[in-house]
Amino acid sequence: MKARTPAPAAVARPRVRRSPAAMAQLKLELLDRAWSIYSAEGAGALSMRRLAQDAGLSTMALYSYFPSKQALLEGLWLEVFEALLAELLAASTGRRAPLKVMEAHLRGFLGFWEARPDQFRMIYMSTHQSADGEAVPMKDQPVYRKLIQLERERVAACAGDRTEPSESLLAEVAALALIKVVGYLLLVLGMPRYPLPERTQLRERVVADALQGIRAAWTG
After folding, report:
1. What pLDDT digit, counting tens, does each position of 60-95 carry?
2. Distance between CA atoms of residues 110 and 43, nearest Å
3. Which long-range contacts (CB under 8 A, 24 or more apart) does 164-170 make?
4. Which domain-ending residue is among 52, 67, 82?
5. Residues 167 and 86 grouped into a single domain
């Protein structure tokens, strides 16, 4: 009986050592791939295994960038909020009157999400939760706090020298303005078949109504 030739020993794949810059770049590429999966196939298709497969990584290697799916979702949200913050900060360029700055802020917010409907739906219309059932936490993230603070500062500036609003009143007025613009977006981006009036006219009415609410809060 002929002796069986022993199978060659498996050669371990050498571990790729990336520089910090290369790791940061790969993390951005992974986030882009995650958005592509979500946009093309929906939330159900986005998993750690699928993302690793699409990126040509092992699942274990992916966990070194995102330790959980919750961390991946947080990374996606933070990337979007950073871009939104930059857009809203730029909205005040060339404007000094507080109400004009506020108007530009509202228009910038609407325009940002109207240009990114998939990202809006994922952040405002999804029910993503962590393993323990908690919603993806954003309120403690610095960029999220900066967005809230920026809106409140611009709302407060509209009061001028007439009054010094309390924090509770300021939070309420800012929240009401946000409710109006997010409500518009929920309708036009989340319910596209709803028989809406002409969209541009409706958008203008929403902005005007939000500004009127801010003015009314300070003038009584």
Report:
1. 989 888 888 888 888 888 889 999 999 999 998 888
2. 23
3. 165/217, 165/218, 169/217
4. 67
5. yes
